[in-house]
Amino acid sequence: MPHHDNRTLRHATVLRRLEVRESVALTPHMRRIVLGGAELEGFHSASPDDHVKLFLPNAEGELVLPTLTPEGPRFAEGALPSPARDYTPRRHDPAAGTLTVDFVLHGDGPAAAWAERARPGDAIAVGGPRASFVVADDFDAYRILGDETALPAIGRWLEELPPGRRAQVFVEIPGDADRQDLASRGDVAITWLPRDGAPAHAEGRLEQALRTAAPIAGDVFHWIACESRRARAMRKALEEAGVPGDWIRATGYWKHAA
User: Fold this and answer.
1) pLDDT at 1 over 70
2) What pLDDT is recorded for position 184?
3) Nearest to 234 by CA among 257, 253, 258
4) Is 90 exceeded by the pLDDT of residue 127?
5) Domain FAD-binding FR-type spans what residues (predicted)?
6) How far is it, in rounded angstroms, from Cα 129 to Cα 44?
7) Is 216 helix (H, G, I), strand (E, B) or coil?
8) 139: which DSSP letter?
9) What are phi and psi of 97, to 5 degrees?
10) Is the pLDDT of residue 138 over 70?
11) How far is CA 189 from the centre of its chain?
């Protein structure tokens, strides 16, 4: 069996104070925020599913950031810390000095609420990424499955796919209006799977797509990102079907509160 060299790259953790340059509604459930600032210099993201930690203004409207220590981040005593959430760098343009982050608008979480209100000039801070999981580029094809929270990573993955490289993509979204135009130089087949009111945490269209997907000849890497329990279950199903564990990356992008 061929050995495909997936690699994990480690990066020095840096906190960067940035500001909103642009805010655009992509779909009913997705908003794109373009960030910039002098401190973006030196930022590097090596993989489409990298994660950065976004630090948002606290309840008093201030950015209160931790000090990075060998024991981890530490906030000053008595400080009201900025809430922090993990997000995917959708696009980094070093020449323009911008970093694009797409936000799923759901519920009243601090990040989604901030993104809905964000205007040019608003302050935010970005930490990381601390590491990048770089998938080998010599697989015969890639099967990519995710819900709307994975769309930023999927979109970036397809944009960075080399010409002619094959990818079979399944994206579960709230409804048809949440489709996006995803550009790629690869040989890509995208299937959109609207939930149309079905709960996002329940087994459904992604699992069915995985069971019934047209076979792909050769070595296929599987990338899965959705609700945590669902991602674990799909990984288990693939392993039971004989897919090598290092040909699978299944990540819980969020967790349903039972």
Assistant:
1) no
2) 97
3) 253
4) yes
5) 7-136
6) 8
7) coil
8) -
9) 70, 40
10) yes
11) 20
> Hey, is 81 helix, strand or coil?
coil
Q: How confident is the model at residue 125 (pLDDT cuts 50, 70, 90)?
A: very high
Q: What is the mean pLDDT of the chain?
A: 95
For the ranges 5-9, 68-72, 115-119, 239-243, the lowest mean pLDDT is seen at 68-72
HSE at residue 219, side-chain half, CA atoms within 13 A, is 16
Peptide bond into 129 cis (omega under 30): yes
Burial letters 87-124, b for 16+ CB under 10 A, else e: bbbbbbeeeebbbbbbbbbeeeebbbebbeebeeebbb
Size of the chain, expressed as the number of residues it contains: 258
Q: What is the mean pLDDT of residues 234-255?
A: 97
Q: How many CB atoms lie within 10 A of CB 38?
A: 9
Angle of helix 205-212 versus helix 228-240 axis, rounded to 10: 10
8 A C-beta contact, residue 230 and residue 209 = no
- What residue type is assigned to position 251 of the chain? T
Locus of tokens 């944009």 = 159
Encoding tokens for residue 233?
């279950």
How high is the pLDDT of residue 77? 87
3-state helix, strand, coil in the chain (%, to 5): 20, 40, 45
